[in-house]
Amino acid sequence: MAPTTRGLHHVTAIAGDPQENAEFYVETLGLRFIKKTVNHDDTYTYHFYFGDGEGTPGTNITFFPWGDRGRSGQFGAGQTKTTAYSVPSGSLDYWIDRLEAHGVDVTEPTDRFGETVIEFEDPDGITLSLVATDAPTAHPWEASPVPERHQLRGLNSVTLAVNEIEPTADVLTTGLGYEFETEEDGRHRYRATDSGSGSTVDLLETDRARGRSGIGTVHHVAYKAQDTTEQERWREHLADQNLRVTEIIDRTYFQSIYFREPGGVLFEIATTEPGFTVDQTDDELGADLALPEWLEHEREEIESHLPSFETPSRI
């Protein structure tokens, strides 16, 4: 029997200035700064994680802030168009007022598949949306500048832009176990068998050329796997679908495999364990630079190359 994902694990994007990035996601959106580490494949670049009070899988958005040395990305086919978070029903007026007070332009509320949605951009131009739902929050963050009753309640969905719907849809359904739900205004909705928060992927067809990765674009979308045993089943299953899948890679806080679907979007499947307290206590999360054991001997050199950054006061 083929494995089926329980939905979104995290979304990883590319930012510019690390300070501006962290201040927006903590001070404006009210997410907790869960982890300050480095990109394992580019150790002179930070890797930031933001999430709910415990960094629960399915609530996290992560960033590689490239700083001044990074090139700007170009949105196009094969990329994530929008990353959506759930907020409590009745909270959108609060969020419109809050975002506008922070100088963020917000769209008028619109109806999408019977849900009310607003959209806006982060400081680097990454499109975000808030969807009013009744989804529960896993772990509220007591120190958030956003009152608990209005806090973001985890990833709701991602919208992927592709030149052709069918090849990507086939990976979602045959590959990842999603089911086609409905179509509205050219938007094709797919839902994981676990229909909770973060279970939805939307596909939009675009005539744009392939996008260019860089500041202001999403790098990859990650889906949940329970453990490495399930990941091995995923590797075999996806290989049977003629997809090129990496070996399991240790990302300290989870184990990962990666593959690129035919439409160009980079997908990851990540385990839900061991989690962010594997190297820091809950009280320490986000406070200091966390490095995997195999990079500890390079700490001094790595820190000397990282850009200036002041950890948010709310951690």
- Under CATH, the topology is which? 2,3-Dihydroxybiphenyl 1,2-Dioxygenase, domain 1
Task: Name the CATH class.
Answer: Alpha Beta
What is the spatial order of strands in the main beta sheet?
Answer: 2-3-4-1-13-16-15-14
| Number of strand elements | 16
Residue-averaged pLDDT: 95
Helix-strand topology string: EHEEEEHEEEEHEEEEHEEEH
* Distance, first to last CA: 42 Å
Count of DSSP-assigned helices: 5
Strand content of the residues, in percent? 25-35%
Shape, principal axes of CA atoms? globular
Q: How would you sum up the major sheet?
A: 8 strands, mixed
CATH architecture field: Roll
Count of distinct structural domains: 1
Structural class label: alpha+beta
What does this structure look like?
The chain is of the alpha+beta class. It has one domain: 2,3-Dihydroxybiphenyl 1,2-Dioxygenase, domain 1. 17% of the residues lie in helices and 34% in strands. The protein has helices at 18-28, 92-101, 165-175, 228-240, 299-305; strands at residues 8-15, 32-39, 42-51, 60-65, 79-88, 110-112, 115-121, 127-133, 155-162, 179-184, 187-191, 200-205, 218-225, 249-250, 255-260, 266-271. The strands form two sheets. The chain has an eight-stranded mixed sheet. Strand 2 and strand 3 form a beta hairpin. The model has no long low-confidence stretch (mean pLDDT 95).
